[in-house]
Design brief:
348 residues, ten-stranded antiparallel beta barrel, four-stranded antiparallel β-sheet, 9 helices
């Protein structure tokens, strides 16, 4: 467990998505009634194909994350050098209720002795009534989705390494021209960790996601605008992101699977705590500005104690609940007061 604690702070990042579909054999081909124009059958076939694409993101992957700033929109701003990283990651289906699918990502890192790092999670909901929205300054709220916007569509809600919220959006899966892809409108999201730990010149990302299934895995494409919110909102620069997930079975996936087998009950309890906050209906925020290490490090360390057999899942969940209660609030200050200040105050 000491090895895990020493490695987490410098290793946790955030992005991801692909592999084995779990769908009925007859769902891939149109039925006779669909061919004759039955709209209900066409809807069912589309739903089945959407599910197949989402479930195709589960698997074992070699991953690469590449981000390139392209065009500056603020005078004097110079685009930064491209960012490139990668590694190995498993993606597992941890819940499937038909119209709801949850995928957990776990990194496998290290030299000769590999170890797991719990990564991000993506939850997919068909025709959602509400969607998770990031509202700036480490705060979130659940937004109602209009009936027209949810009909036939899926929301994707993304959660951080500690299962705290990150961002969400609603969009349609399409399967035209031999490509299954999901594209929502642009939504706000927090800074990626690669910038949160190094930069203080912007406060949110206006991000457009595209998730597309490829012959050897899947790809997460992003069209991002880096948004400064101190004073009048302004875009500093645009950025293109291409994160590739290529099927790969040549790394020790059992390292990650074993971690999940030992900690799944604990993380299910942590998810329930965050879900309760979302369902309460009030906007909520972290009390720490910027990089929330005071939240995720204790929660990840509790998981490490459960993995090592030093603590029961129930005991760790109780401690996690106390940590989350201490590090969150529903009494939100104004946005300006929630924004990170350069190199000084980290809370309120």
């Amino acid at each position: 467990m000491r090895h895990l604690k020493a490695s987490l702070a410098g290793t946790v990042c955030a992005i991801g998505l692909l592999c084995s579909p779990a769908i009925a054999q007859d769902a891939a081909a149109p039925t006779q009634s669909a061919q004759s124009g039955d709209p209900q059958s066409a809807e069912q076939i589309k739903f089945a194909r959407d599910r197949e694409a989402i479930l195709a993101m589960a698997g074992d992957y070699k991953v690469q994350f590449k981000f390139t700033e392209t065009v500056a929109f603020t005078e004097g701003y110079q685009p930064k050098d491209p960012y490139l990283s990668g590694g190995y990651e498993i993606v597992r289906v941890i819940e499937d209720r038909g119209d709801f699918i949850s995928l957990q990502h776990i990194l496998v890192v290290g030299g000769e002795k590999k170890f797991p790092i719990k990564h991000w999670r993506q939850d997919w909901q068909y025709q959602p009534a509400k969607v998770l929205n990031f509202i700036g300054g480490n705060a979130w709220q659940m937004r109602d989705v209009d009936e027209d916007d949810r009909a036939g569509n899926w929301s994707q809600a993304v959660y951080q390494v500690d299962d705290s919220p990150r961002y969400g959006a609603v969009g349609a899966w399409s399967h035209d021209n031999g490509v299954s892809e999901w594209v929502p409108p642009a939504e706000w999201r927090p800074l990626p960790r690669r910038d949160m730990t190094k930069r203080d010149d912007y406060h949110a990302v206006v991000a457009m996601n595209r998730h597309a299934i490829t012959p050897d895995g899947w790809v997460h494409e992003q069209d991002n605008s880096k948004l400064a919110l101190d004073g009048k909102a302004r875009v500093l620069v645009r950025e293109i992101g291409v994160n590739t997930y290529v099927k790969d079975g040549e790394f020790p996936t059992e390292v990650a699977d074993d971690y999940w087998a030992k900690t799944a009950q604990y993380w299910a309890g942590v998810r329930d705590i965050w879900t309760g906050m979302e369902q309460a209906g009030k906007p909520f925020a972290l009390t720490q500005k910027g990089e929330p290490d005071q939240l995720y490090m204790p929660l990840l360390n509790l998981a490490g104690e459960v993995e090592a057999g030093e603590k029961t899942a129930d005991a760790a969940i109780a401690e996690a609940k106390a940590v989350i209660a201490e590090k969150t609030t529903t009494d939100l200050p104004p946005l300006a007061a929630r924004l990170r200040e350069p190199a000084e105050k980290t809370g309120y």
